Structure formats: structure tokens, C-alpha cells
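Render this sequence as a predicted structure.
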Amino acid sequence: QKDVSQQQTHNITPTVVSSASGGFHVLWVERPNQDDYSIRYSKLGPDGTAVIGDTLLETAGGPIRDIAAAELADGSLAIAWSDWRGRTLEIIKGRVTFGGGSARLSGLSNLARAEADKAMSNPRMAFERASGSLVLVWVESGFEEANIYAAGLDPETMEVLGSELLGSFTTASGGYPAVA
């Protein structure tokens, strides 16, 4: 057993992405105290040893959850997550780049909300190497209805190239549906 993090906190919501160069990218949400949430990163080699140790990427004063990530052609990571920084859940996106044995999060921006009265959650990402295409899928939901959206993103700038409503469904419980 290998420790990914030596932090003595409540670590939640891990995401693991295989790396084309070997090994694995691991991202997780940490709750270091009652008020803050953080995103942490580590790169593991094929044998589970840390190539890049426990790294703090982002801290916010509200819940962070549902981290999604995809490795891009240059080995960097596109990431997105649900974040409660405003009046409701939003999707924030950015890139993790590597150099000198460390990881760095940059280019953060909010995904534009399609419906002003709905919460955004459950982001999922995928990168298709042959075409260089990056897609982000997410849910916007209210108490009675949820909509699933998809957007093509420019892998370099993380800007939205186009988006589409994929479908709608009823959420009688007001819960946030999962997207796999």
C-alpha cells in the first residue's frame, strides 16, 4: 500500500486517469477544515510510487466535488469540477501542466451556464487523441427537471467551441443525477 497523501485530513472524491507516458494521475478533494475545500494531485508510477508527490492545486471556501479529468496530447490534464463559489453549483475548468517535477493548475474559468436558475454538476471529460477533440458533459438541474449538456472544448485554451442540449429528464427528488 502506498500513501498518495500524507495530509491528516478528510480526503474525498478521488479521480484516477491513466497516463500515456506510464503510470496514473490522481486528483482528489480534500477538506482541510470546516470551511475550505481543496483539490490535490499526485502522479503515480506504474508500480504505485509517487513520481510527483501530494500537490495542492486549488482551495475554495465552498464545496468542491465531482472532479473530471482527461489527459491531453501534450501530457497535460484538462480538468473540471463542481464548485459552490456563487449562489449555486457551477462548473469550473482549467489545465494542469507539469514541469520540474511539479504540477500547476492554470487557465481557470467558469463554464457558461445554459439556464440561469439551474445548478451545474457532474462534469465528465474525454479526449480523443486521433482528432485532438476534447468534450465536457455536465448536468444542469433544478428541483423537478435536469438537462444534460455537452460542449466541445479547445484543448489549448479550454474555451467552448460549441455546446448542445443532449436531453432532459425529471428529478422528483431534486437530486443531482450521475453521468457516466
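Summary. The mean pLDDT is 86. DSSP finds no helices and twelve strands in the chain.
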